[in-house]
Every structure is written in C-alpha cells, then in structure tokens.
Amino acid sequence: MAEYTAPLRIEDLRTASKDKNRDGALNDAQVALSLFEENLESIRSVFSDRQMTQSIADAVQADAEVIANTIREEEVACEDYALAHRLNGSNVTSEVHLQSSDLNWKILARLAALYVSEDVGHELFKDTKISTEHNSDAGGQAESSSRVSAREQAPHGTDSLQCIACHEVKKYFDVIEVSCGHGYCKPCLQQLVDLATKDESLFPPRCCREPFEMSGVNIFLTKELRDQFELAKVEFGTRNRTYCCGETCSAFINPSNIEGDVATCGKCGTMTCNTCKKVAHDGHCPEDPELQATLSLATQSG
C-alpha cells in the first residue's frame, strides 16, 4: 500500500511547500521533501525487487512438479546420449551440462523459502539434492575437492549449510553456494562483493581462485551493490581511466560520459579533461601526445 500512497503524500507536501514559500527560497520543508523523494526511490526499488522475486517464487510453487519432471527428463536424455556414443565406440561425451540447471534450481528453492514458505523451499531443495546425488552416482562430472569438502561440512540429516567466511551454520536458504562449492551467508557475501568493487586486486570476487557466477549470487545482493559491481566491472576493464578532478569527488567517469576530450562526472557533474586529467579546458590539450609529436616535427622541419 505504501508504494501507492507515498506518491500522493509527496504531491500534497509539494503543493503545501509551494503555498508557504512563494519567494523561491529553499526552506526546510523543501529540503525535507527532496530527501523524502530520494528515500521513496529506494523504497520503490525494494518493492520492485520484492515483487519480482515473489512472482518467480509463485511460479515455482505453482509449477514445481512440472519443472522437476522437465529437469529429470533432460538428465535422462543426456545420459542416453552419452551411453549411445559409448556403445558405438565413440569417445564423444555429451556437451549438455546440467550444472547451470542445478544452480538455477537452487536459486528458485531459496526464493521460494524466502518469499513463499520454508516448506515449499524445503521440497524444492530436497529435489535438487536428490538430483545432484543421482548425477554423481551415475558417473557424471567429478566434483572438485573443495565442493566435496563444503558438502561434507554441512550437518547430516539437516538442510543447513556452513558459511566458509564466518563459519556459522545457517539454514540453506540463508547461505548461497558459489562456483567452487563453498557457501557464504548474505552478510559475508555482501561484504566480500563490496570489498571487491573497491579493490581491483580482489576483483572479480572469487573463492578458491574461482570467480563467482554473479547470476547465482545476485539474489543476496542489494540493487545498490549490484549497480556498484557493474560500475566496478567497467572501471577495472578500462585501460585509460579518467577520474573526476573535483577535490571532494574523484569518482570514476564512465566512458559513456566522455565526449571528445571532455569527461563529465556522473556523480557531481564536474568536467575533466580526458587527456591531462585536470579541469576541462577549451582547445587542444597541451599534454596531448599527438599534438606534442606534431609540434616537435614542425620544430625540426624549421
């Protein structure tokens, strides 16, 4: 209800603020209104994310049996394909891998537990465990030692997982498994990703030297942290980086905000020269290597 009534409340405040302040001066009410609008945007984002995950979880609850049967049929088809090649003396193995399916299945199980009920999530998670164990017993792709170790650390007979960072044992839907098989609880995962976006030596976030599959951990990240990660990916992937020359800013300027030699900071609006990295100026930059080479050649030619 808040997502619908809040905009109406803002309009009331905006009208009242205009009536009380006709001289154009920025009063306390207008400042408060501005802050309130910023908070509303954050609330809208939360509602949007929650509605999306609720929709996914509802679909899982409604179609869980159909999804499970489809995955099992795919597994059988893959096994039959590989067996047929072996019987023909061919060394060709199936190129169809179910790891991503298993990963998506676990994500859906966690979403169901978080937004529908623990019972629904438990049933989906149990199906995933059975499917994974079946693939392992059937001679599927061998598990890494770290994945086996992580699985064995979980208490037997429960649906609990241990966070490799804080070593606390938590319910399965409060722990996400990364590429190597180790699990991270939400606070530890968020801290790890946050540090990676601020330290290039830690980027991309990884465990056991294996980069995280971000599509598998995004459900534990806030929208702000996901945006932060995407910006860091652009920053660390840019060779000739330009940072805002503003004394109190120094934010990375996305290449999409650079036009010619002028880089406009998306955070504070300051314009920086993309060549000398100082305040933007008119004309060619004196520190432009190509310009310097041209001037040097002209001098040598007399």
UniProtKB/TrEMBL annotation:
Region feature Disordered, mapped onto this chain: 131-151
Q: Which residues form a coiled coil?
A: none
Segments forming domain IBR? 231-283
**One Pfam family of this protein, by short name?**
IBR
What is a biological process (GO) this protein takes part in? Answer: protein ubiquitination
The yes or no answer to whether the keyword Zinc is present is yes
Q: Which UniProt keywords apply?
A: Metal-binding, Ubl conjugation pathway, Zinc, Zinc-finger
What molecular functions are annotated in GO for this chain?
Answer: ubiquitin-protein transferase activity; zinc ion binding
- Its recorded name reads IBR domain-containing protein
List the InterPro entries hit by this protein, alphabetically.
Answer: E3_UB_ligase_RBR, IBR_dom, Znf_RING/FYVE/PHD, Znf_RING_CS
Keyword Protein biosynthesis assigned:
no
Q: Which domain of life is it from?
A: Eukaryota
